[in-house]
Amino acid sequence: MRYVLLVQYDGTFFAGYQRQKRGERTVQGELERAAEEVFGVPTRVAASGRTDAGVHALAQVCHLDGETTVPFERLAACLNTKLPPDCKVLCAAPAPEGFDCTRSVKQKTYRYRAYVAPTALPLFARYAARLERAPDLGRMREAAALLKGEHDFAAFSSTGSSAKTTVRTLYSVEVACRTENGATMYEIEVTGSGFLYHMVRILAGEIFAVGYGKSTENLQRAFATKQRNLIAKTMPAAGLTLVRVEYQMPLFAAKED
Amino acid sequence: MRYVLLVQYDGTFFAGYQRQKRGERTVQGELERAAEEVFGVPTRVAASGRTDAGVHALAQVCHLDGETTVPFERLAACLNTKLPPDCKVLCAAPAPEGFDCTRSVKQKTYRYRAYVAPTALPLFARYAARLERAPDLGRMREAAALLKGEHDFAAFSSTGSSAKTTVRTLYSVEVACRTENGATMYEIEVTGSGFLYHMVRILAGEIFAVGYGKSTENLQRAFATKQRNLIAKTMPAAGLTLVRVEYQMPLFAAKED
Lengths: 257, 257
Prior knowledge:
homodimer, Alpha-Beta Plaits, 2 domains
């Protein structure tokens, strides 16, 4: 029996999603420990994709295969009693026929948040990066428009990516700015077919750089030349949240919105 | 020379504002340690009022008396190099003539936040309390309207309050509800002349209780009888944030909004 799980985690104290050989604390490690307690046997918990150390997830999608007498309506609560406060299962249900949380992904949405302040603010720093000064919103949106569509994003990826192709499609790249608790907060929301290693943090960095006056020519040349050094540095992990993963088939039909 | 400071802190790992005899970690303790390093002598840092263990402040107002060659425009940055990540000075300036951050208070605004979920959510739990089910917004607003105005709030205070009078005026009690990152979030924002020990957390609890169907008669009887047991339990500290403190005189004229 395959179950699909919606999982929320605060990435601050995790060395990313994927289980590490060196025994660091990971989301997968916590989920698999909890699943083993509930299912009684070692149980692998797959995810839609890995998230890096420090990256948060509002609703990561996972699956596991196992047999249990626990009714699925009580499975999330049951796993949650075994999980730490910074990683919880929002809901669990039998997976649709042929579902694979990694391979069936249609699109994913990430959000990158950054606030403007001269010092790291105690009530903002956990879920957002800091900008020393305000970038220009109009220029940021120009960069966002150029990033949209199908491109070779090789230059927007850190070395270490194992992807076979570096072509990805971004269906939307939205930039918003508003006052949040007295601080100016910038939010970049990106929906795409898939993302390379560090890709969202790098493209967020480039959008901010263009907002500070960098020419968008670098960005366009980077698509053609694949030169990583044309593009901004990787932004800090704390600003990044995996917001949503969408599939060909509906999941949790009644519960998801 | 008296300086006024705007201070932000994440209350999660503080035993409240006020310095404790037993050497627990407090906001005042951190501020006074930093001030002593900058001013070179033991320096008391007063606040508009104490906040309890676990309560956050977006903009607590403090003052200190001291002499330094550091220009006031650089004082916040200077103190921040000595402060931990969960407590920072947003700005510092010479205090207006006759200013006392505790005695000159005109009104304070607190916000109480709570979200609806069957389990504590990793990305919500740090700055909000949890409700198991959704209270009725209309009923909550009825309770809020009854709380507004000048009343004897003795029944809305935990024992241990040292206040001389328990009469306080609430200028506004606003209840809002919205979807925040997929969860239903309730926010109660209260502005008043002053607050008794635990008062905001108790009145938030009573507003939620009325939202669940409790009669507002208890609330009205509690004003007359001062009976604490007519009123709901104190809500958890994590949901409470001191948002704003206002004074007779303008502070940080150019910087505050």
